[in-house]
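User: Sequence in, structure out. Go.
Assistant: Echoing your sequence, followed by the structure tokens.
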Amino acid sequence: MMGSKIGKIFSILCIIVSVISAQDNDRKFFVHHVSVIGEYKSYYTRIFLVANLQALKDAWYNIPPTWDDGSDHCNWLGITCTYDRVTKITLPSMELRGELPEHIWDFTQLQILDLSYNKGLIGSVTFKVENLRRLTHLFLVGCSFTGPIPDTIGNLENLISLSLNSNSFTGPIPASIGNLRNLDWLDLTSNKLTGSIPVSKEGTPGLDMLTNAKHFHLGDNQLSGDIPPGLFNSNMTLIHLLLENNRLMGAIPSTLSLVTSLQVLRLDRNSLSGNVPSNINNLTNLQQIFLSHNKLTGPLPNLTGMNVLNSIDFSNNTFDYWSGAPSWFSTLETLTTIKMNRTNLRGELPAALFSKPQLQNVDLSHNSINGTLNISSNPSTQLQLVDLRDNQIDDFTQRSIYKESIGLILVDNPICREYDVTDKFCSPQTNITTYSTPWNYCPPPSCGLGQVSSPNCQCACPYIGSIFFKVPSFSSLENSTIYISLHDSLMTFFHEAGLPVNSLSLQNPRRNMDDYLVIDLKFFPYGEPSFNRTGILGLAFAFSNQTFQPPKEFNIYYFIPEPYSNFLKDNESTKHKSSKAGVITGSVVGGCVLVVLFVLAGMHFFRQKERAERPPQQSQQFALWDSTSSGGGVPQLKGARSFTFEELQNYTNNFSPSNNIGKGGYGMVYKGSLPNGQPIAIKRAQKGSSQGGLEFKTEIELLSRVHHKNVVGLIGFCFDQGEQMLIYEYIVNGTLKDSLSGGSGIRLDWMQRLKIALGAARGLQYLHDHADPPIIHRDVKTNNILLDEQLVAKVADFGLSKPLSDADRTHVTTQVKGTMGYMDPEYYMTQLLTAKSDTYSFGIVMLELITARNPIEKGKYIVTEVKESMKKNQELYDLQDILDPVIGLSSPLKGLEKFVDIALRCVEDTGNQRPTMSEVVKELEYIMEMLVHSSLSLSTSASYGGWSKDYSNDSLLY
């Protein structure tokens, strides 16, 4: 039996070495043959993963350093695995160079692929992209890909976001994209796409079938032909239709009016002709309309009823002569921008035109407007520019009292041809915007080569890029308030997302040829002279997948960064890819390794034989604990039982996939059963993981000392045959996260949630106040709170926990670790971990309990969402908009106000403003007691949503 095991291990090792050392063709051969070895299916999965990740490494230059340090492939920067399957590859702005290897299409479990902002990535996307059937997000923004977009992309039926903008893709838009019924975001902007816009016909798909899509961003290409009438229908939920700067011809189809959800319409810079459809004012949700630089004729469109419209640009068309301003001008109170230069306007302008309360910019230049100009005695306080150059205006009623705060331009009008005219509005004006984020009351230092001064006057290497806003709702470039709003929004996002940005500089706002607002950005690192790769990856991913949501005035954007030169020093791992040399090297290495493996196999055999001949108790102790690989000296334990590897094999059916119930902090989790029938959960560390060793030892030592009904109980451990495993009580109802998300099938009512909150709080209170030594959990979250068969909450997963020594009774200075969204901002900033850090995380858990939302969801932070909802409703605790519907229908939710009070106190920015967990427990107990007395005064039982439960004192307060 032992020889058989050694034979299997040896065979697999040989295959792994051969796969890694082989070239692409050989690797395909090995992967193919390994796949048919049914007996080794679990081994094959791992081999497949290693082989394909190795292929990525071989194909690209400038790979992250962690890809070369021998670490577990699933710990490589930008690689996320679930059950030995790669589910995410996120490597934006890593300065990768090379082509997409064929093996990237073999990651069939991939859900997110983001290679954005790597200008050195070239070549094409092949038809094999269809292999990624589980893909939900594909981001290839700002690379250098060429060739056609493969038609097989339409087979990615789970795709939600498709962003291929700012490349050099050619050919037509694949009609098959119409098959992506879940698609929400389609961005193909700034490529070289040609041909017509595909619509469905005779069984062929088209973009009109994307009824769930909100965004069609197809501008800045070379699309031609008509805008097909069949593109639009009343089932569509489109809010952004951007077709600017193409070669589209023909009339604007009247079917456009069917898409009543539309908010932004850009058809400018094409060759469209004919009349604007008379029914365009059916688009009553439209906020911005751009029809400039076309060949449109006929009457100006009637926009009556479009009451939320803020920007109009009909410039450079040949509309019929129109005397004075259109009557519908007076009905649009939300207008900020009117651009109608070169549109055949004539006659006098009504004074009321300039009194619109939000009006900022009026451009009616190069028309035939005549008579006397009257800007009214009470113009809009936001009015900054009135451009009437090259018209026929011969008088100005406010000439003597003209307010120079309004940029009035009357150049090339009769009024400016009078003798000896000196009025400023008759002189050419150049608006130069020079906004830049100011210094924070400090003198900028003199910095060395490659570094610049941040607004906080610290020298550093910033991450630099430009952000392009396609349809901002404001027109003035000189309003510093709007840039401060963007600055503050970015910094708030970075803080809440835990990104290491210390300060930010906005510079040089301007309009480009596409009339996009462009702003240069510089991000400065926190606490270091430069960003590490993880920081840059987080920043870039926030922009590539649109996690960052700007203030509403800025609207749609995309981001293009510059290469981060600091990484060039880390990445000088030049590869010489001679296939001949590779074959020789692979053969030599493979041969040497095989010899070594023979030796190791022999050593393993004799070691196993010797182990088998030892007395049983000798292998059950820690005499051979390796402090180097396992993170410190021999663990000090109290009462934990030791298990052998063979025992756990029997309890888990040889760790079969059917017994796999998840993935823990450092490895897989399996369900097992002891001989007495007691169910157990086994956390099995990944081999070779130093972090796993540290977490393993930490959790053994802490859990062996911890005994409380609200803390998961440790049964034992295994330190045998190179394995590190923890065995603890199996908690039947899984995690609190599962129940809140609906994954467990349990619908938690309000009373049950209060009970769970109190139980988890008691568990943390015990760790802080009664454990010896006191323990700071450091990773409190709904995934680490388990629910037993009675829905009793048990705090779990102590891999990141920190005990407090006698010398550090209040805090410990340690490397920042935890989970984004739950992490204490004060701990992140200072690296001082305190018990109040757990309090902050528990406050987030409390907010999750009432909203069932993730801490960070769609770029929004749960704390901000709750506070804004309270403020918006002007009734402090009217949270109906964000309450979990499961409890939101239960009325009244007694104790909710007090509960929210406690939660918001827990998430105060500084620890001294937060309660201790002991105080939290007392306040939650008060709520429960209040509800018990309330329910007892009505009945001995309470019914919620058709459920009837006995809420006696014991059931509520244990």
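User: And one key feature?
Assistant: The domain at 736-957 is CATH 1.10.510.10 (Transferase(Phosphotransferase); domain 1).
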